[in-house]
Amino acid sequence: MSEVVLEVDGVHTYIGQHHILQGVSLEARRDAVTVLMGRNGAGKTTTMRTIIGLLHPARGGVRVEGRAVDRMAPYEIARLGVGFVPEGQGIFATLTVDENLRVAMHRDDTEHRERLRRMLALFPDLDRFRHASAGTLSGGQKQMLAIARAFVNPQRLLLIDEPSKGLAPIMVEHLIAALRAVKHETTVLLVEQNFAMAEVLADRFFLIDDGRTVREGPMAALVADAGLKQRYLGI
Amino acid sequence: MKRAAPALALVALALSPLLGMEPRVYLTLTVAGLAMGMLIFLVASGLTLIFGLMDVLNFAHGALFSWGAYAGFSAVVLLNGWTGWAESPSVLLNALSLLAALAAAVLVALALGVVLERVIIKPVYGQHMFQILITLGATIVLEELIRIVWGPNDQVMPVPMSVQGSWDVADVIVLRVPVIAIGLGLAVYAGMLALLHRTRVGLIVRAGVESGEMVQVMGHNIHRYFTAVFALGSALAAVGGLMWAVFRQSVSPAMGGEQLIFAFIVVIIGGLGSVTGSLVGALMVGLSYNYVAFLFPKTALGVNMALMVLVLLVRPTGLFGAAR
Q1: How many angstroms separate the CA of residue A230 from the nearest CA in chain B?
Q2: Nearest Cβ partner for A106 among B207, B214, B219
Q3: Which end of chain B is more exposed for a tag (fewer CB within 10 A), N or C?
Q4: How far is Cα A186 from Cα B261, in angstroms, rounded to an integer?
C-alpha cells in the first residue's frame, strides 16, 4: 500500500455556532486521486477549508506527511507544498492571466518558470490571453487558470474543490483531459459532484453525509454499488 | 477614448480660465494650482493605499501627517542647532537638512503605522464603522501627544535658505517650495506605480486586496504585507505633512485634520485604489481651487465638493476607479 500523504482524523469543525463537521476522517495516498463525495451541504467544502487552514477544527487532527497542520495558518500549510483550487476558482479578476500565475509561484527560479511554460502549453487559451484581465475569461478558462496556478509549484498535495461546477459539458471534457495529464505529478484530493468525472479520475473514494465519513474504498467499488450511489449521492 | 477622458477633462479644466483672464495671471495661477495639487497628492497618495486599496477608513491619516511634520520640524531644529545647516548659504547643506527632516518624518511614521495597524486596525478589517470610531480615537490620542511633546501652539518651521524665495520666469512668480513639492510628488507617483506594478510585493498586495484568503492559501502571509502597506501609507502622509510644514513655514497639532478632507475628496474623485486617479484628482482640486479663488473668491471653499459631486455624477466609481 502506498504512503499516506494526508490524514484527517475525526475532525469536528464549527462555522459560527453551526457544527458542520461532526467526525470526518479520510486519507489521501501518494500519487493517487482520492475523491470526496456527498450530497449538497454534506460538508465537503468545509472539509477542504479545514485541511488548508482557513477553518480550524475544534476537535480531531489534520496531518500532512505525518506533520500536524490543524493549528497552522493557511500560508504555512501552503508552504509545506499543499495547493488549493477552491470552489468558484478564486482567481484574481483584476489581475492579468500572467499575473495570476506569477502571484501563485512560490519562487521565480528555473524550475518554476519551466512549470509555468508547461502549464501554458497544456492550456493554450491561457497563453493566448496571457496579458488579458482574468476577469474577462470564460468560466472554463477561469477553471483552467485556477488549476494551472496550482501546478506552477511542485505540490505534495493538491486540494481541488468542485472543478466542474457550472461548466458546459465540453469544458468538463477538456478539464478531465487536463487533470488526467497532470494527476500523476502529485497527490490529489478532489471534491466532485460530477460522478462521470470522478469515475474517470479517482482511485479511491470517501463518502460523507451530515458532516461524517460514512464509507470509503476503491473507486471501482463505488461505481459498482448502485445502492450506495442512490443512498448517498441520489444518482 | 474612454480611458483618455479623465486626462482630457484635466487639460480642459486647466485651459478653461484662458477664456476670461490674462495669460500671465493664468500662468501664475496654473503653477500655483499644480503645486497645491502635488502637495495634496502627497497627502492623498498614502490614503490611496490605505483607504483606496486596503479599504480601511483611516481617519488617523491626518494625525500621521501632523506627526510627520513635527518629526521633520524637530530634525531641522536640532540639526540646525548643532550644525547651522538650515541657515547656511550652501545648497548642499540645506538639502542635507531637508533630507534629515524627511528621514525623521518617514521613520517616525513607519513606526507609528506598524503600531497602529497591528494594535487597532487589524481587529477591525472589513468593519467600516469600527474603523471610523477607532481611528478617530487614535487621532485624538496622537494629536494630544503632539501637544504634550511639542506644546499646543503653532511653531515656526525653519526653512533652509535655498528653499525660501522664488524665481521670476517670464514675469511669472514661481515659488521654490512648490517646485520641490512638484518634483517630490512626481517621484512619489513614479515610485508607487513601480512598486505596485513592477514588483512581486506589489503584485501580492494587489492580489491580496482582491482576496486575502486566496493569497494566504498560495503561501503568502498577507497580514505582514498589509502591515507594510499601512506603514508605507503612513510614511507618505508624513512626507506630505513635512512638505506642508515647509510650504506654510509652520507646524500645528491640528494641521493634519485640515488636509484630511482634501485627501478623501481626491481619493474618491480619482477612484478607489488608483494612484494615477489620485494624481489627476489632486491636480484637478489644486487647479480648480486656484482658478475659482481668483475668479469667484466667495465660492472657492465649495469648489472641491462641487468637483467631487460632478465627477461622481458622471463616473460613480471615480475617474480611474473600477466597479467593486
Answers
A1: 35
A2: B219
A3: N
A4: 54
Angle, CA of A158, A164 and A170, to the nearest 5°: 125
Angstrom distances, CA of residue A74 to CA of A29, A36, A55, A112, B32: 21, 21, 9, 21, 51
In terms of pLDDT, which residue wins out, A69 or A151? A69
The total number of structural domains in chain A stands at 1
> Least CB-CB distance to A78: which of B200, B211, B219?
B219
In a domain, B319, yes or no: no
B224 touching A (Cβ < 8 Å): no
The residue of chain B nearest to residue A149, with distances taken between CA atoms, is B218
**What one-letter code names the amino acid at A187?**
T
For an interface test with B, give the residue of A92, A98, A159 to mutate (most B CBs within 10 A). A92
CATH of the domain at B17: 1.10.3470
pTM: 0.85
Q: Of B207, B211, B217, which is closest to A78 when you measure between CB atoms?
A: B217
For residue B320, being part of any structural domain is answered with no
**pLDDT tens figures, B198-248:** 999 999 999 998 898 999 999 999 999 999 999 999 999 999 999 999 988
Mean pLDDT of the region A54-59: 96
Taking only Cα atoms into account, the Rg of chain B, rounded to an integer number of angstroms, comes to: 20
CA dihedral A16, A20, A23, A27 (to 10 degrees): -110
Distance from CA of B38 to the nearest CA of A (A): 28
Question: How close, in Å, is residue A52 to chain B by CA atoms?
Answer: 7
Residue A218: left if φ>0, alpha if ψ -120 to 50, beta else—which one?
A: beta
Note whether B218 contacts A86, CB cutoff 8 Å.
no
Structural domain including B182 reads 5-314
DSSP states of B26-53: HHHHHHHHHHHHHHHHHHHHHHIIIIII
* Paired sense of beta strands A187-191 and A4-15, if any: unpaired
pLDDT tens per residue across span A130-153 = 999 999 999 889 988 998 998 899
Q: For B14-54, how does the pLDDT look when each residue is reduced to its tens digit (9 = 90+)?
A: 777 776 778 888 888 888 889 889 999 998 999 988 987 88
Adjacent-strand bridge partners of A218: A204
CA dihedral for B52, B53, B58, B62, sign (positive or negative): negative
Q: Interface pTM (ipTM) of the complex?
A: 0.89
Asked if the structure places residue B238 within a domain, the reply is yes
User: What is the grid cell recorded at B8?
Assistant: 482630457
Task: Tell me what pLDDT residue B3 has.
Answer: 65
Residue A125 domain-assigned (yes or no):
no
